[in-house]
Design a protein that fits this description.
This protein is of the alpha/beta class. It is 36% helix and 11% strand. Strands 1, 2, 3, 4, 5, 8, 9, 10 and 11 form a nine-stranded parallel β-sheet that branches. α4 packs antiparallel against α5, α8 crosses α9 and α11 packs parallel to α12. The longest helix has 17 residues. It is globular, with a radius of gyration of 20 Å.
């Protein structure tokens, strides 16, 4: 895969994110935003497209045509009475009686409506889907602290018992601080009594290639932070999981990146789209990924699982189910990548994986891509 991408300088620079290495302009949260990038075709997965033209392919369970990777960042789990009261007043002012009547019963507990993990899993399960939940593991006094992770132990165990994934949502400074990464990872693992494989940083803070290097050292198996906060699309031209190439060392990295394509706040806040416009953009990317037999990662916060945003998320699930997509969590995607031997050429030799995620597994290698023979209308 690396040698194929190197054949085109523009695709190679896009795939490696060369423009982010030295002296790039960043926003007030220390993020590299889309509006400061030289790459303008963010809706076109150019790197993945080039690989497919070279004959590379990717197979999914039961020959499903593409994958939708579902994720949730858990930034907040409590809502104050003051906030709820303000929302009721606003709803009444807007003459939205349905919204007001939905909030009023929640006044008896600060947990609602954000303590909704069971409701989310039941919704996804009804469409044959599962997802990843990324929890903050911060100590009181840390920047961004919003809840004690111990309070959620029962909820996290429920998620894991049902087959959903629990990963780490790194704190505001973790993306550039190895000791913080290790501390937060140990903290979450201690509460879970289980190893944590997956990661996404708070506010989508990320530095190329530094954060990947730190995540490898901290023992993470995959990351799913790489996406623009201010625009949906394919930050490095990939609509497939990939192993980053470090231009500083000249080597492919061990960690797997499952790139983020769509975040709820990107659509509704940064891009300031209404629901109809947001769906047009989302449907466009879903169809693009289907054409490229790719993986599209979607981030939908638990705080937006009410009202119209919840209806929007349900629409994504309905669309994926209708298309016969594999709707899975990041851990399932990562395990499948290792089992299948990511991006094996059609005529390439069989190899075994050395990544510790699952041990060894066969490559996808045949004279024809299995996805080309799949039935796009099959159910997940």
């Amino acid at each position: 895969m690396i040698e194929s991408l190197k054949q085109d300088r523009e695709n190679w620079d896009l795939f490696t994110r060369r423009e982010e290495y030295d002296g790039c302009s960043r926003d007030r949260y220390d993020r590299f935003p889309y509006y400061r990038s030289r790459h303008r075709d963010v809706a076109v997965p150019r790197a993945s497209q080039a690989l497919i033209e070279e004959g590379f392919c990717f197979e999914y369970p039961e020959s499903q045509p593409f994958a939708i990777c579902l994720t949730h960042d858990i930034d907040v789990v409590y809502q104050s009475l003051h906030t709820k009261g303000f929302e009721i007043i606003k709803a009444l002012k807007d003459r939205d009686l349905a919204c007001a009547s939905r909030i009023i019963p929640q006044l008896h507990s600060k947990k609602f409506p954000y303590w909704n993990f069971k409701e989310i899993t039941e919704l996804e399960e009804s469409y044959g889907a599962s997802s990843s939940f990324y929890f903050l593991a911060l100590e009181e006094g840390d920047g961004g602290y919003a809840y004690a992770i111990e309070d959620l132990e029962q909820e996290m165990c429920m998620l894991q018992d049902r087959g959903w994934e629990v990963g780490l949502h790194g704190g505001c400074e973790a993306y550039r601080d190895l000791e913080r990464l290790k501390r937060e990872k140990r903290y979450l693992e201690r509460v879970l009594n289980q190893e944590v494989a997956g990661y996404r940083n708070h506010y989508l803070k990320f530095r190329v290639p530094d954060t990947w290097e730190l995540l490898e050292k901290a023992g993470f198996r995959y990351d799913t932070t790489l996406g623009y906060p201010d625009c949906i699309g394919f930050r490095n031209g990939m609509c497939h999981p990939f192993r980053p190439f470090n231009l500083n060392t000249g080597q492919e990295m061990e960690i797997l990146e499952i790139p983020l394509a769509i975040m709820d706040q990107t659509l509704l806040s940064y891009m300031q789209l209404n629901m109809e416009q947001a769906w047009e953009q989302t449907e466009r990317l879903l169809d693009t990924v289907e054409r490229h037999h790719g993986v599209i990662t979607i981030l939908w916060h638990n705080t937006l699982m009410t009202g119209k945003p919840l209806q929007f998320y349900r629409k994504i699930l309905e669309y994926g189910h209708k298309k016969g997509a594999w709707m899975a969590n990041c851990k399932e995607i990562a395990v499948w990548c290792q089992k299948s031997g990511i991006w094996a050429p059609p005529t390439g030799p069989r190899v075994t994986s050395t990544n510790p995620l699952i041990g060894t597994g066969p490559t996808v290698s045949s004279n024809r891509c299995a996805l080309e023979e799949s039935n796009p209308g099959s159910s997940p």
